[in-house]
TrEMBL record:
Quaternary structure (record): Homodimer.
A GO CC term attached to the entry: cytosol
InterPro entries: Dxylulose-5-P_synthase, THDP-binding, Transketo_C/PFOR_II, Transketolase-like_Pyr-bd, Transketolase_BS, Transketolase_C, Transketolase_CS
Organism from which the protein derives: Desulfosoma caldarium
Family of the protein in this entry: Belongs to the transketolase family. DXPS subfamily.
Record's protein name: 1-deoxy-D-xylulose-5-phosphate synthase
Originating gene: dxs
Biological process annotations from GO: isopentenyl diphosphate biosynthetic process, methylerythritol 4-phosphate pathway; terpenoid biosynthetic process; thiamine biosynthetic process
Reactions performed catalytically: D-glyceraldehyde 3-phosphate + pyruvate + H(+) = 1-deoxy-D-xylulose 5-phosphate + CO2
Amino acid sequence: MERNFDPKQVSIKIDTPLLQTIDSPADLKRLSIKELETLAEEIRRVIIQTTACTGGHVAPNLGVVELTLALHYVFDAPTDRIVWDVGHQCYTHKLVTGRRDRFHTLRQWQGISGFPKRDESHYDAFGAGHASTSISAALGMASAKHLKGCPSRIIAVIGDGSMTGGMAFEALNHAGDLGRDLIVVLNDNEMSISPNVGALSSFLSRKLSSRTVMSLKREVENTLKAIPGVGSNIVQLLKKSEESFLSFFTPGMLFQALRFQYIGPIKGHRLDRLIETFKTAKSLKGPVLIHVGTVKGKGYEPAERDPARFHGIGCFDPKTGETRKENVPSYTAVFGRCLTELAEKDPRIVAITAAMPQGTGLDVFAQVYPKRFFDVGIAEQHAVTFAAGLAAEGYRPVVAVYSTFLQRAYDQIVHDVCLQKLPVIFAMDRGGLVGEDGPTHHGVFDMAYLRHIPNMVVMAPKDENELRHMLKTAVLQQGPIALRYPRGQGVGVPLDPEPHALPIGVAELLREGDHVTLVAVGAMVMEAVAAAEILAREGIEATVINARFVKPLDVHLIGQWASKTPLLVTVEENVRQGGFGSAVLEALSEEGLLPRRVLRLGIPDTFIPHGHLKKLRRELGLDAEGIAHSVRHALVATLPAIHEAPVRAIR
Ligand SMILES: Cc1ncc(C[n+]2csc(CCOP(=O)(O)OP(=O)(O)O)c2C)c(N)n1
Ligand SMILES: CC(=O)[C@@H](O)[C@H](O)COP(=O)(O)O
Ligand SMILES: [Mg+2]
């Protein structure tokens, strides 16, 4: 049982004499290897102590301390461009590029981001948060440099997990063809968030079975022998040792076939070797891939022991690695358990994740139904079309995916699922604002990017109990259907013994009042209910409708109340442009039911920064107080006694 850890008890007192002398990468270049090693230890302490208070990507960052120092030691950023894939491993980079003194603000409201951001520093050559983009971006930069005749070096740093994304291979394929000067550093820790998956992963980690190696060897020897003159010489060379055969035919072979020069695998925590290798790579022409082996969580025992838990973690006790225990189950956990229960009675249910078994709660399902569970790697596009294939054969595939990552698979949803009316279920976790990960991860576009696709049904539950009913609804649906729910703890409502199907397109009336109708969806329903309670204390009576469905909308119920009250307010944690409120406006206008005054509350047309979820909702006026304030403000003309609260910054 974990102790209930209180992050407020943690203070950051870290002695870092060497780090205090590093204001830019130029300061690194005068250090000896010994001093760099000491610096690496100081940086590890800073990362652990800081993330213990702020939360963050602990294990990925601890794994690349030496790698980052060596890169900045050898190359000349910002003239040379370092492009981080995902960007969740950029803390050392930030610490040595002028952000040391702001590092304690990591991931906090108005503090520095947990990811590289072009407008945060000119050392952040390319912004990221989603995986597998680095080689494409770096190749674009290399091509631009080539066109401009500029000699600087471009380096992409990509993990073995991110290398499973199709885009990485599209870029390698193109890079091999273009032949530009480009260095790809493959940071191979044999882990994605969970252990890495796929044939490529085994190939990289040289886990080829000795039988495979021997039969490959025999095949190659025979082929080579058949080449007159040259063949037998190469065979002799290869025969010298198993080792030489392995290095010829394992990872290097793959990248060499793509016309990359391959160096490695090299030890990723040896600064001397890294520096020597990067210097060699700097002198080479054309595309080069350096394969570096690192340990995820290096130097912090709890993270090395459980790198998946420390991949991304909230506040923790730095001494023990313990985290605070939550009393209310998360939406994710409720989803995972409910799907596993439904699967017992319905053998058609299969589950798919794109490298997020824990994050989506599918780890529970995987344990019970390993054969009906598929982790496809960081490959959201493939996940969706793979699901379409399963659905075409009579299965009920559930693609459990973070809302933000499903953006990758838009055409697959349209072309492979909806056009063919295939019963694929999209369980979109992290719908709405996610907090500290910020704009790369807020799932605020899904209602807008799904609701206009023919044949698609889109739902969002008001609490974790309704999530279960929606999941049951989804598995009984004959066509594509999506449910989106937020990151984090549920509301804490009791769960019905059995989930039941909801009638498609029917909303729920939660409260009746004559002054205003609040139509909310998803996590915003409870905020709207709380807003109605605040307003009631001031004499303003609100009707509250839980929309449940973004598509099809319950035009009947919404229209009925829209015509009874002078003000209609829609509330969503989604972009206002094209979102739920827009859907309500469209539907009511088509029916001729538009009321005199409509207010759409939601995410404005701007990217929302990182920060604590409560703070973000407050700033956006999407908490109960904010909703009540907007209603008061809109009603002020008819009820002049109501005072205005101050309008907040990013609304
Ligand atoms: C498109 C996309 N899908 C999923 C994720 C979630 N995600 C973040 S990091 C990660 C694993 C990355 O593994 P790797 O590149 O090997 O880096 P490591 O954490 O091991 O250093 C995943 C799946 C993401 N950021 N982007
Ligand atoms: C970098 C990345 O994409 C993931 O690690 C993500 O930060 C996880 O987010 P959750 O903490 O919401 O699972
Ligand atoms: Mg990895």
